[in-house]
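Assemble and predict.
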Amino acid sequence: MKQYLVPYRIRLGAQWTMVLLNVVAGLSIPPMVGAAIDGPITNGDLVGLWRYAGVVAALGALDALLSLTRRYFQTTTAMAIEADIRDVVYGHLQRLHTGFHDRWQTGQLLSRVTTDLGMIRRFFAGGMVFLIMSTFMITLILAQLLWIEWRLALVVAASAVPLFLLGRGFFKNFLPAARAEQDQSGEVSSVAEESALGIRAVKALGRGPLMAARFGKEAAHLRDLGIRKSYIASRSWSAFDAIASASLGTTLILGSIMVANGGLSLGQLSAFIMLQLGMLWPIEAAGWVLAHGNEAMTAADRIYEVLDTEPAIRDRPGARARDRSAIRGALAFEGVEFAYDDDDRKTLRGVDLAVKPGETLAIAGKTGSGKTTLVSLPSRLNDPTGGRITLDGTDIRDIRLDSLRRAVTTAFEEATLFSMSVRENLALGRPDADEHDLLEALRVAQAEFVHDLPYGLDTRIGEQGLSLSGGQRQRLALARAVVVRPAVLVLDDPLSALDVHTEELVERALEQVLQDTTALIVVHRPSTVALADRVALLHEGRIAAVGRHSELMESSPDYVEVLSAESEEVAA
Ligand SMILES: Nc1ncnc2c1ncn2[C@@H]1O[C@H](COP(=O)(O)OP(=O)(O)OP(=O)(O)O)[C@@H](O)[C@H]1O
Ligand SMILES: [Mg+2]
């Protein structure tokens, strides 16, 4: 955590000074009261009493003021820490490889960046400060107690033994209970998030009650875990209070005997008891803090699990930036192999393909043959597990990722739009695009429907763009890719949701764009193939045939089958 604390050094300094002054001011009150009882009160000295009362009141006011400033520093520092860690985690999530996000449930990630970070903040804001403050107070109080009457003080100190044993038992049970609760809270978020995203499927399949039952089960489990944790905590607290009260009772009895025998003054006993009562709070706070400190530690563990995952795809040492204008766009796959992490089967086996600058290559193949996987490689959403891919002869791993991704743009089948305006969505890949670029891209993608939206280009798209139709979303996503004017444009079945007529319009407009762009287009329909100079047929992860559409229609029965099967599907 240290690295996050550095910028707060000054604030922390101020905070700790406040803590120190706060404690000293608070603890100087009981001896003053004791002295007042033994002095002016016993002697009936009214003027002297007023003097004491004035000092005590001033100390009380100072204590309150210091406590206010301390809290201010405490809270603001902790908020800043939380915000910074959250930025670090978010930035890290962005750099992680898509495979990580396939494996991790979104809900787990969400609960880590929200709940867990909140716990860490609470620890910094309250916990850590209280812990140190408590230790300091307990030491000071004990010193004062020893000074007033050492034998009584030893009796008080003896209660530390059962408290320690109690504390040890508590943490042994509490820690696993807290971790279980935090993990389960991630599960609940996951289920909630999945059903929110999949609400259409849930309703259409009539599975509402089933999903509700599933959610109910997870939520009930979370409740049980929460109750168990609270039970462990409250059981310990009660024992804690019992020990503290017993110790206070002992002091009262022994102290009264001492006062009766003349070994202790009434003022001293009062100060002693005030101090002992004053110790309850720090002891309790220390326990509370240790408990929350543990939660914060588990939370930190859970966050580190994310932060410790190294981005699998990153710049190689010595990777160079490439200027977009210097890229011609010759793309080549050389003996490319690929297997997903959790799979021993190879999805791609020895793919060799060369696309000339400006050429459009279509990829056809049965469903599951590896087309999406293949086209995820040139922009390094995945790295080949064997072989290499080159852009203008350079291994793409030797090109800096940021410049590679500016040069190679991919539009996917599922068009994900973000909850921002149409304009912002379009300019995502090229923030400096001007109005003309955007309008041109909208024209190419036949997405001029945006002009009819309530606020035109400034209309905000609902969460995940759900308020648009599938075809509308697809056309916007296509426009977004076109805006970038990349050297290599990769389209994974970008027209699948369009009707035949619109598809034809998009194709005609795309043709112009494709003229001076290298393109890799996954196609399913014979009509889209017309866009391509050549077609590659992918079969079970291998390139089975490459050639012009007309050649393949003659020479490859598989090709004919793939395209005709797909077109029948469309017709049906
Ligand atoms: N994220 C993933 N993790 C593990 N396996 C995957 C993943 N994505 C795809 N696969 C597997 O890789 C194989 C190829 O999938 P891919 O999506 O590339 O096929 P496709 O040709 O694009 O199919 P379609 O025409 O249906 O889009 C399939 O067997 C699939 O199960
Ligand atoms: Mg696919």
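Residues 208-261 form the longest helix (54 residues).
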